[in-house]
Structures are given as C-alpha cells and as structure tokens.
Task: structure prediction
Amino acid sequence: MERSYNNDVNSGDYSEIAPGLCVGGTPPRLDGQVNNPPEFSEYEGFDYVFTFHKHSSPILGAVEIRYFFEDDWTNGLPKHEFGKIRELADQAFDLWRTGSNVLIRCQGGKNRSGLVAALVLVSSGKSPDEAIRQLRTKRSNDVLFNRHFEALVRSGSI
Result:
C-alpha cells in the first residue's frame, strides 16, 4: 500500500508505524471544528479507521469506528474509560493481526491515537518501552507527550 508521509505532525498526514498499521491526525479541511462543513475524509488503502477526534469528518471507503475521549493533560484518562479504550485497542489489534490495513487517528495524531496504537503494539508482543520508541521513531518524538497517557502504557494498567 502506498502511503504519504509528512514530518509536520500537526497535519492530517499519517505515518506507517508497522506494516499495515498507521497513526495520524485530522487536517484542518477535514476538521469540522475548523472547517464547517468539513470535507469527507478519503483515505486510500485502509480497511478500518479508528477515529478519536469528535470533529473529524466521516471516512469514505473504509469501515470507521468512532469513539471520543478527552486528551486531558492535567488529569489524564478517567478510570471509567479504561475498559472501552482497551476494547478498542484489542479490536484494532485483531483486525491488524488478521491482515487488515488499519489507521488510528485523532486530531494531531499524537496522544489519543498514540495511546491506542501503543496498546496495539504491546498486544503484538512489544514491551511498552519498545512500543513508545517505535511510535516516536515512526511518527514523531511528540507522540504521547500527554504524560498521563504515556504512564498508562508503561504501567500496563489499561
């Protein structure tokens, strides 16, 4: 699958972090918070897209799973969200493991998508440190700059 790459991690471009597994954000033209109405998102080559930004436009050409949770830098992720985030990460892992091309996206492609993608990589057998390092190498050093989310991955508590 041909993919585009962009070092500007605030763009909606996505980065392949493992074959068939990508992490990305939502570019302004596809963000209903910035551009009303937003354009539909058309990404080629994905079977499933997990969207964690409530203003991202709908996906055309792939099955989309949408769930919003806050990227709270002060308080982190509320415990009542742990089960749902784990369930979604498990679903993304199962789809990816069985050969589907999966995109995990939020607004900037750093924290919410980074949390879920790190959990997917840990499910694949990587240590939390290896998963975070891989995301930061393939996507951006800013992935999981929300230290609460990083701590959740490192602790294995989600």
Summary: Strands lie at 14-18, 21-24, 41-42, 48-51, 59-60, 63-66, 102-105.
